[in-house]
Every structure is written in structure tokens, then in C-alpha cells.
Design a protein that fits this description.
Blueprint: E1 2-6, E2 35-39, H1 42-58, E3 62-64, E4 67-69, H2 71-75
Antiparallel strand pairs: 1-2, 3-4
Bound molecules: zinc ion.
């Protein structure tokens, strides 16, 4: 047993205005978000969460006070909330 952890985009955008994208812009749609497995201990869970958080930031994701936002959605939202730790 263990934990499967995924970081999803909480603040989606709808892409550039006037263009239709069947799969959307958001990384949630293409399942290109950080994910991984942790063992069923608290230590392993927090270690995996830390790793995925660092991976997300390395990929250009931002953690904001309203949640995570993927790099694609950052391009098409003007109202991206400020970053938090
Ligand atoms: Zn997104």
C-alpha cells in the first residue's frame, strides 16, 4: 500500500480567445502534471510531496494562494494570484 500523489492545476484558463482547442490548454487535460507514488508512511508521503512540489516549480508551475497553476494557464490568465511558499 501507499499513496498516489498528483499536483493538478486549480486555476484553469481557456486558452487564447477565439481559438478552439479540443483538449484545452490546461496541463490537467493532457495529464502532464507532476505525479508519483509514496510509501504508506508519513515520512515517505512528505518526502514525495516535497519532490513533486520541486518538480512542479521546475516545470514552471506556480503555487498561489488559490492553488496551483500550470505554465499553460499562466500564459492566458491576466489575473494569476500571487505566489506563496
Ligand atoms: Zn492549467
Amino acid at each position: 500500500m501507499g499513496y498516489w500523489i498528483e499536483i493538478h492545476c486549480d486555476i484553469k484558463s481557456f486558452g487564447p480567445p477565439g481559438e478552439l482547442h479540443l483538449n484545452g490548454w490546461c496541463s490537467n487535460e493532457s495529464t502532464s502534471y507532476p505525479m508519483g507514488m509514496a510509501k504508506s508512511t508519513r515520512a515517505s508521503y512528505f518526502k514525495a510531496l516535497k519532490y513533486l512540489t520541486e518538480q512542479a516549480k521546475g516545470w514552471g508551475w506556480k503555487k498561489t494562494r488559490e492553488g496551483w497553476i500550470c505554465p499553460n494557464c499562466q500564459k492566458y490568465r491576466e489575473d494569476v494570484p500571487s505566489e506563496t511558499n
